[in-house]
Write a structure and sequence with these properties.
about 350 residues; alpha/beta; Isopropylmalate Dehydrogenase; two-stranded antiparallel sheet; 14 strands; globular; binds 3-isopropylmalic acid; binds magnesium ion
Length: about 350
């Protein structure tokens, strides 16, 4: 089994190093190869997704990804910006299914900005379509308007679109995930306004016929945003498009107190996957040794479960993370009075110790 290690920018290298440390003590013969991506890719090879990095990602069985982005690169033209690396990997490797669990560990109930009774025991799964929608729809750009109320003016435009196949395949992933959980699926759309999402709703409803054991409901995205804050525990699995999923998954992440705790998996049709923390590159704290490595370590656990078919090893890592939390160890993002503040490395070492 070969794992491509793509640390990226900002805190990426520090947190990925901790996950690699954890993978190395499992007693498995994983081959790991590292390559630059994002701003680091641009610095090394003049492109955020260098050819060699893409080739490695294609060859590998799984990819462990840190984060990309740094203010240094914000003035580059869009095609050279760090974010293009992750978008390019998703598209090139057909990683259409993004799984973002939001789980609140009991020890961290006080870290949420919501009342403990609203979030305690939270365990929801957001499934975001990842290779379609307005993110990738063409045409897009800036042009002179030839119609509408502002003819002759410059206008920016993007295209929202979903093909039937794209909706069907993500719906199947979502129904199957719901079957393994509480058998409840909420499809989030904006069918009251957008043609694309009326179509989405119709197709999800059709796919539902194959999964009579799953209860399906539909919710408009604005209401879903409200319900996520009001009564998040009412959800089990949520499935939605790329744009809405981007926004709702950040909101869901904050229910748990810290986005520093949340892993994610981006899978293709054969369960090959890219695994990354749900948070970004946090350039403001890069190099300070204070970033929380747990989301990346938990992403490595998801990799063991979904792609590498080592569920027992995934369980081991998740138990080790629970153990260090119950020992009271906290990086600054989840620190509360009465707990022990530790840095990135110390947290990684503690997980390694808890594994043994
Ligand atoms: C995410 C991020 C990315 C996205 C950015 C970095 C392109 O926000 O993974 O949610 O918008 O998908
Ligand atoms: Mg996002």
């Amino acid at each position: 089994m070969k794992i491509a290690i793509l640390p990226g920018d900002g805190i990426g290298p520090e947190i990925v190093a901790q996950a690699v440390k954890v993978l190395n003590v499992l007693g498995e013969a994983f081959e790991m190869e590292t390559a630059p991506v994002g701003g680091a890719g641009y610095a090394a090879h003049g492109h955020p997704l260098p050819e060699a990095t893409l080739t490695l990602a294609k060859q590998a069985d799984a990819i462990l990804f840190g984060a990309v982005g740094d203010w240094k690169y914000d003035t580059l033209e869009r095609s050279l910006r760090p974010e293009q690396a992750i978008l390019g990997l998703r598209k090139n490797l057909n990683l259409f299914a993004n799984l973002r669990p939001a789980i609140l560990y009991p020890e961290l109930a006080g870290a949420s900005t919501l009342k403990p009774e609203v979030v305690s025991g939270l365990d929801i799964l957001i499934i975001r379509e990842l290779t379609g929608d307005i993110y990738f729809g063409k045409p897009r750009g800036v042009r002179i308007a030839v119609d509408g109320d502002f003819i002759g003016e410059r206008e920016g435009f993007d295209t929202m679109r979903y093909a039937e196949t794209e909706i069907r395949r993500i719906a199947h992933v979502a129904f199957q995930a719901a079957q393994k959980r509480d058998k409840r699926l909420t499809s989030v759309d904006k069918a009251n306004v957008l043609e694309t999402f009326q179509f989405w709703k119709d197709i999800v409803t059709e796919v539902h016929r194959d999964y009579p054991d799953v209860a399906l409901d539909h919710m408009y995205v604005d209401n879903a945003a409200m319900q996520l804050i009001r009564a998040p525990k009412k959800f089990d699995v949520i499935v939605t498009g790329n744009m809405f999923g981007d926004i709702l998954s950040d909101a869901a992440a904050m229910l748990t107190g810290s986005i520093g705790m949340l892993p994610s998996a981006s899978l293709d049709a054969n369960n090959k996957g890219l695994y990354e923390p749900s948070h970004g590159s946090a350039p403001d704290i890069a190099g300070k040794g204070i970033a929380n490595p747990l989301a990346t370590i938990l992403s490595a656990a998801m990799m063991l479960r979904y792609t590498l078919q080592r569920p027992a090893q995934a369980d081991r890592i998740e138990s080790a993370v629970k153990k260090v939390l119950s020992q009271g160890l906290r990086t600054p993002d989840i620190y509360e009075a009465g707990t022990t503040k530790v840095g990135t490395e110390e947290m990684g070492d503690a997980v390694v110790r808890a594994l043994n």
